[in-house]
Design brief:
Length: 119
């Protein structure tokens, strides 16, 4: 189960990074030619290597980071129109997958779950 969760977290994080960059630079930027909104992808680089290596602590704190992208995607999905609205829905979906997989991974990899039962 843990390898599947790690794959889901890694894939959704990488997809979220690319989506943020493509969205704000080429697909539907706020201004023609791209905007500084593309910088929203940089915080997602912070947990990347920890997620890829399966570091439990990274999974724990990156769940909070995922909520920011879930919130931004939800707001823009309800307020934007056209292609930006669809990209926001995709961002919401990817952030939700990332959030669910990192929370599940952190929970299932807890040291207390790996201890044999004493009795």
């Amino acid at each position: 189960m843990l390898p599947r969760l790690q794959l889901a977290a890694s894939a959704s994080l990488i997809a979220l990074i690319f989506l943020c960059l493509l969205w704000e630079l080429w697909l539907a930027p706020l201004q023609p030619g791209g905007t500084w909104m593309a910088a929203k992808a940089f915080p997602l680089l912070l947990p990347l290597f920890g997620i890829l290596k399966g570091r439990r602590y990274t999974y724990q704190w990156s769940s909070l980071l995922a909520l920011l992208y879930l919130m931004e995607g939800s707001v823009r999905a309800t307020s934007d129109t056209g292609p930006s609205q669809w990209l926001a829905l995709l961002e919401t979906l990817l952030a939700l997958v990332f959030f669910a997989s990192v929370v599940a991974y952190a929970r299932l990899s807890a040291p207390s779950r790996n201890k044999p039962a004493q009795g």
